[in-house]
Write a structure and sequence with these properties.
alpha/beta; 8-stranded mixed β-sheet; 3 helices; globular
C-alpha cells in the first residue's frame, strides 16, 4: 500500500527558507531550510509552495519530486498532496523519494522540467543563531562547502562568534 500525506496550510507559519540569488558554477547548494519538525507531512507542503513562489530564473513549472535522506525525517510518505494557499487554487501531488545514501541534511527539489534546487536542511532542534548562520552559509552564491560540512553544529562550532553575532572570516 502506498503511503500518502496531505496537509492543510491555512494556519501554518511561513517556512524558514533562505535561497541564494543564483547558482554559480561549482556551487553545491542553493540555500538552506530550517523546518520546525521532522514530520514531512507537516513541513514539506509549505516548502513546496515557498519554492514555487520563489521561481528560479526561467519557467520550470511546478515542483514535482523531492529527494530526501530517510534518517533525517520521522515519516516516509511516497506522495505528498499540496493544497494551494494565498490565492493559489491548484492541488498538486509531489513524489517523495527516500534515500539512505544522501548526505545528512541534503534535500533536492526537482521541477517539472528537471531543474533542481539543492537545500541544506537544518535540524529542527538547532539553536536559532546557529540555524540562521548555517542557512546563510548554504545560500551564499559560490559556496563550495558540501552539505555535511555545512551543518548547523559546524557553523556554530567553527565560525559563530559568541558575542558578535556573525560568522568569522565570512564576507558580509
Amino acid at each position: 500500500m502506498e503511503r500518502r500525506a496531505s496537509s492543510d496550510l491555512s494556519s501554518s507559519p511561513a517556512p524558514r527558507l533562505l535561497l541564494g540569488s543564483a547558482r554559480a558554477p561549482g556551487t553545491l547548494l542553493d540555500g538552506g531550510w530550517w523546518p520546525r519538525s521532522a514530520d514531512p507531512a507537516a513541513e514539506l507542503p509549505g516548502l513546496v509552495l515557498a519554492l514555487q513562489g520563489h521561481k528560479p530564473p526561467g519557467d520550470h513549472g511546478p515542483v514535482t519530486h523531492i529527494m530526501l535522506r530517510a534518517s533525517d525525517w520521522d515519516g516516509r510518505p511516497r506522495r505528498l498532496r499540496v493544497e494551494g494557499v494565498e490565492g493559489l487554487t491548484d492541488t498538486r501531488v509531489v513524489r517523495l523519494s527516500w534515500f539512505d545514501t544522501l548526505p545528512a541534511g541534503l534535500l533536492t527539489a526537482i521541477y517539472a522540467d528537471g531543474h533542481r534546487v539543492d537545500l541544506l536542511t537544518v535540524p529542527p532542534d538547532t539553536e536559532e543563531n546557529a540555524a540562521r548562520a548555517a542557512m546563510k552559509q548554504a545560500a551564499r552564491t559560490g559556496e563550495h562547502t558540501q552539505t555535511p560540512d555545512t551543518s548547523a553544529e559546524t557553523a556554530q562550532e567553527s565560525g559563530w562568534e559568541s558575542e558578535g553575532g556573525r560568522l568569522r572570516d565570512q564576507e558580509e
